[in-house]
UniProtKB/TrEMBL annotation:
<dbReference type="InterPro" id="IPR036291">
    <property type="entry name" value="NAD(P)-bd_dom_sf"/>
</dbReference>
<dbReference type="GO" id="GO:0050112">
    <property type="term" value="F:inositol 2-dehydrogenase (NAD+) activity"/>
</dbReference>
<protein>
    <submittedName>
        <fullName>Inositol 2-dehydrogenase</fullName>
        <ecNumber>1.1.1.18</ecNumber>
    </submittedName>
</protein>
<dbReference type="InterPro" id="IPR006311">
    <property type="entry name" value="TAT_signal"/>
</dbReference>
<dbReference type="Pfam" id="PF01408">
    <property type="entry name" value="GFO_IDH_MocA"/>
</dbReference>
<feature type="domain" description="Gfo/Idh/MocA-like oxidoreductase bacterial type C-terminal">
    <location>
        <begin position="202"/>
        <end position="459"/>
    </location>
</feature>
<dbReference type="InterPro" id="IPR043906">
    <property type="entry name" value="Gfo/Idh/MocA_OxRdtase_bact_C"/>
</dbReference>
<dbReference type="Pfam" id="PF19051">
    <property type="entry name" value="GFO_IDH_MocA_C2"/>
</dbReference>
<dbReference type="InterPro" id="IPR000683">
    <property type="entry name" value="Gfo/Idh/MocA-like_OxRdtase_N"/>
</dbReference>
<dbReference type="GO" id="GO:0000166">
    <property type="term" value="F:nucleotide binding"/>
</dbReference>
<dbReference type="InterPro" id="IPR050463">
    <property type="entry name" value="Gfo/Idh/MocA_oxidrdct_glycsds"/>
</dbReference>
<feature type="domain" description="Gfo/Idh/MocA-like oxidoreductase N-terminal">
    <location>
        <begin position="46"/>
        <end position="163"/>
    </location>
</feature>
<keyword id="KW-0560">Oxidoreductase</keyword>
Amino acid sequence: MPSSNSASRRQFLQGSLAAATAPYWWTSSSLAAEATAPSDLPAFAAIGLGGQGSGIANQAAGLGKMVAAADVDSARAARFAGVMEKNHNQKINTVEDYRRLLERKDIDAVTIGVPDHWHTKIAIEAMQAGKDVYCEKPLTLTIDEGKLICKVARDTKRVFQVGTQQRSDRQFSEAIALVRAGRLGDLERVTVGIDQAPYSEALPVAEAPSTLNWDMWLGQAPAVEYRFGKDLKRWYGKKSGGDGGADASNGHYEFRWWYAYSGGKLTDWGAHHMDICQWLIGQNGDGQGPTLVTPTLAEHQVEFDEQGNPKQTDRYSVATRFAFKMDFPNGVEVNLTSEARNGLLVEGTKGRLFVSRGGVTGKPVEELKDNPLPEGAVDEVHGKGRPWNHMQDFVDCIRTRETPISDVFSHHRAITSCHLAGIVGRLNRPVAWDAASEQITGDPIAQAMQQRKQRKGYEIVV
């Protein structure tokens, strides 16, 4: 994987385990300060126990009580149960079917770390069952799923935190504070850089692992055979050559490179950076979003039919290299691309800055030494008194019933932009978007791609 992606994921998981094993009173929040009695801690269940799923569940366990977990892979469930007992002295029961957990009255909230194509169904059913939800990004597989999840969130009034942890990283709020203070002048352009996705050789059909319920893993996606290749050649960019061998499949983490289950880097890193971008340019409110998305580069290793469906189904299908120009009604141009450094380059009439997980740099930042921001400017962006810990913010909001820092509604608008880019890339033509009605206009084929046909027995019901 590119170094920026591997390092950031590794840093997040290490931070998750550190937070989970630290004493509870080390956390900096109102909940910890009140020395809450164990009987008052929220009771969690974890759904999805892969790398990221286990990471967020570990964080939750360090701030509450983990009482149960679900995964369609029994090996992952058993491993997680062992970690809970070792790290937290919490004995949990595990199940294959997450619905068994939603039936329980002793569970207050769930963490959801399953593949993207399962996020919406599980989150909606959890809210309908009266559970608060922490769900990994990208929240949805399609644009129309976002509309459904927002409706249920409004109807049920459950606390819902999306796992876009960058909203709890101080440097991103600092960048927004600089923009709001006029240090860049009038905004003109934001370049959102995210990593390329890998190409792969054809993956042969294989027998699914004995511990994995493959049919349930597929969920709403079409019923297909499991594919796995040992030490297959994978590479980035058509001319870059191979990067050695790697195990590859159409399941577990590798799901991210198949349109049936994900949107590739566009919805992986794109979910993080477009969220910050639209927050920064003031386009994450109701009825806001791009008006036109235009492709300038869209490379795939598969071909698509006229409806945007991959013709080859034995290899990765998501965009490998890409660049999209997005026009917003406030006149700011946004370029979402795999061809720029990972992060956001923000340009205005008076200067520019670059912000990423590594920090925020640029002349406006250097000038803070002699011309600091007004006191409290960064906290005003982030929320005065809000903890700089994403999971802690969720736990606090479970008690206060306030809206978390990464709410489902603003995330839906940001991930919609990413989904639009995915549609544009597959069709290789511009698409117009009406943010008020949340509809693609003037292109019936593109409009039909706002949703997916769901396999019988796995439909999302609202």
